[in-house]
Amino acid sequence: MELDVNGARRQIAHPDEPLLWVLRDELGLNGVRYGCGIGVCGCCTVLLDAEAVRSCQVSAAQAAGRAVTTLEGLADGETLHPAQQAYLENPLQCGWCLPGHVMTAVALLSRDADPTPEQIEAEASRNLCRCGGYGAVRENVTRAASIARERS
Fold this sequence. Notes:
alpha+beta, Ubiquitin-like (UB roll), 6 helices, 39% helix, metal-binding, 2Fe-2S-bd_dom_sf
């Protein structure tokens, strides 16, 4: 079976496996992190057709025919996505949850280029951060929106 991952067609051998494990184990995309395995923590968040989903809760077969985007697929050549740039400027303490927060921010910003603090809070609260870096998460989403505006 084939998947469209980060703009490239990729052959996979285990379509019944969770997308998380196919991305990590078969395709070597380690920006997708395992956290809880039950869709609660958000570490495994990827985009399916620009929508943030928990890859531990979606089989690879369910992603067939849809555009899968991981942290590795956000940059445009050498230019980081605004969310990646914001988190690079203001990283979280341990970084384990960071990919999920970045992908959630990308999905939010694709829906609303200038989200309100309440929207940012609602989206950020969907992902867990064991280090308590929620203040930085909110700052980073706001900064990412600013970077995007500066670039356009």
